[in-house]
Write a structure and sequence with these properties.
- A 5-stranded mixed β-barrel has the order 1-2-3-4-6.
- Strand 5 and strand 6 form a beta hairpin.
- The chain is 27% helix and 25% strand.
- It contains 6 helices and 6 strands.
- The longest helix is centred in the first third of the chain and has 12 residues.
- By secondary structure, the protein is α/β, with parallel strands linked by helices.
């Protein structure tokens, strides 16, 4: 990361991936504030083009650690903001749970993917975070905008550039007894 169009095109729904590089974080407050900046005609604190935005509110770091637990939060809470950020070139989002139809359509229109991180594994995932830097909205606490450097961060591709949805594929297979 950041993602190139070729890497995005290679990702397929259901594929396990290991992420290394830079990603940004944000939850409800960060999304609300990013969109408020856009409404005011102001620049964002980061260029989101080609980037991944991870829906996480990390806990404080214990002594000797980069960050505390960093498990994903439920993605649908960001659905009302996501199409607007995708239009800016955001390449990927990552959280847990399904995305609404509007977000899935916006991903198709803007060439973006959605990944799921492992829910309930925040302590494990924090070990994949090698550096954490506060970028903006410090007063939002864990909901601030952070830049993480990650190494071998595990995720699953849920929505790919072809419009496939891994959750739907699994549900369909289970209904058919496969």
């Amino acid at each position: 990361m950041p993602f190139t169009p070729e890497v995005l095109a290679s990702l397929k729904a259901g594929q396990l991936v290991s992420l290394s590089g830079t990603l940004y974080t944000g939850r409800d407050q960060t999304h609300r504030r990013l969109c408020a900046l856009l409404d005011e005609g102001k620049d964002l604190p980061v260029d989101l083009a080609g980037q991944l935005l991870y829906y996480v509110g990390p806990s404080p770091a214990r002594p000797g650690r980069v960050i505390g637990a960093a498990g994903p939060t439920t993605s649908y809470r960001m659905d009302s903001y996501t199409p607007r950020l995708l239009a800016l070139g955001l390449a990927a989002t990552m959280g847990k749970g399904a995305r609404c139809a509007e977000v899935r359509q916006a991903m198709l229109e803007h060439g973006a993917v959605y990944l799921a991180a492992i829910g309930g594994a925040g302590a494990f995932l924090s070990k994949c975070i090698k550096k954490a830097e506060l970028v903006a909205f410090a007063d939002a606490g864990p909901e601030a905008l952070f830049r993480f450097e990650v190494e071998k961060f595990p995720a699953v591709v849920i929505n790919d550039l072809e419009g496939r949805d891994y959750y739907a594929l699994v549900a369909a297979a289970s209904r058919c007894g496969k």
